[in-house]
Amino acid sequence: MRIFSGIQPTGRKHLGNYIGAIEPYVQHQELGEAIYCVVDLHATTVPYEPARMRESVYDTAVILLAAGLDPERCIFFRQSDVPEHTELSWLLASVTAFGDLNRMHQFKDKAGAQRDLVSASLFTYPILMAADVLAYRAQQVPVGDDQRQHVELMRDIAVRFNARFAPDAETPPLVVPEGAYREIGARIMDLQEPTRKMSTTGGTEQGTVLVLDEPKTIERKFKRAVTDSGSEIVRSPEKPGVSNLIEIYAAVRGIGFEAVEAEFADARYGDFKGAVAEAVVARLTPVQERYSELRADEARLEAIFAAGAEKARAITSQTLVDVRELMGVGPRSSTRL
Ligand code: AQP
Q1: For the stretch 102-123, what's the b/e string if a residue is b when 16 or more beta carbons lie within 10 angstroms of its beta carbon?
Q2: Could you identify the atom of ligand 1 that is nearest to the CA of residue 6?
């Protein structure tokens, strides 16, 4: 099985990214041929600081390595080092419905937050994301719950491409991928506004726990987490704050919701929040230590990216030969050899 996912270098990674995506990336290395990239091109779709971009890519890459991504066991690279992603994105735009792009929640949310310019690339972002995955003919895409709509769209794009350009093919040229969502922890909510997801751009500062936050900061953020009326530690739609804390604890400890509710049946909110903070600190401390060890060596990171991009291009270049051939773009593939 081939697995692909990408992560943005924007901002600093938070607990939602860690639980919803980074941990699953590490686990998926054991399940098949895993391919991951830091999607710097996606990060150009909203205002950003060019002078900080490379640093942010390194920061994000090192968080992934510190969490357990192993470049010997997966293909790990920087998106912009593999130009087939952008070429395929353009080609797939021809089988992407404008109306579908117009319905994307993420575009609406992010476009609404822009003061000066809503870029065309923010609108076409889901096509590039589709190209990221389809270029590898990946079967599974581990992502958080917020990406469901984008995964549905990439599936539609693959189906439409296959139907339009290879209706009679025994093996369709593009694989229609499946989203892989964690059962517990696919949508971690903001600690201050637990009806909104924890987010890099849309969340509250106090409600967003960063992977690199000091233990004291993490404890403070959990201590101040919004809870709900009543005192019972149970999951319920009327208790979004407590439900979120239960979800975080369950995900971090690798146990079910019932086990959490049973463990804290007699506890008070304050004690429970302390226990959640402690579990999160215990989970993130080794990642932070590894991060400090690895971050300084940027030459090593570039070497990892270069080796990863070479392996990635061995796959994507073949996909592009097939796609160009089927679409009638460029010379016949046999004459290109
Ligand atoms: N709250 C979340 N719970 C679980 N998973 C989450 N993800 C994001 N938020 C949550 C998953 O993290 C992966 C990387 O996301 P990204 O590349 O989009 O990174 P980002 O933009 O820094 O993360 P945000 O917070 O999602 O940014 P905003 O809200 O600004 O767009 C993805 O698999 C995502 O599903």
Answers
A1: eebeebeebeeeeeeebbeebb
A2: 17
This prediction has a pTM of: 0.95
> Ligand 1: which residues within 6 Å by Cβ?
7-8, 10-11, 16-17, 19-21, 143-144, 146-147, 186-188, 197-202
CATH code for the domain in which residue 275 is found: 1.10.240.10
Render pLDDT for 76-123 as a digit per residue (tens, 0 to 9): 999 999 999 999 999 999 999 999 999 999 999 999 988 889 999 999
Domain of residue 248, residue span: 215-293
Confidence of residue 11 (pLDDT cuts 50, 70, 90): low
Residue 265 backbone zone (phi > 0: left; psi -120 to 50: alpha; other: beta): alpha
> Rounded to an integer, what distance in angstroms lies between the CA atom of residue 64 and that of residue 69?
6
> Whose alpha carbon is nearest atom 33 of ligand 1?
143
- Residue 66 belongs to domain with CATH number: 3.40.50.620
232 and 138 in a common domain? no
Structural domain count of the chain: 2
Question: For residue 119, what are its two tokens?
Answer: 């870029």
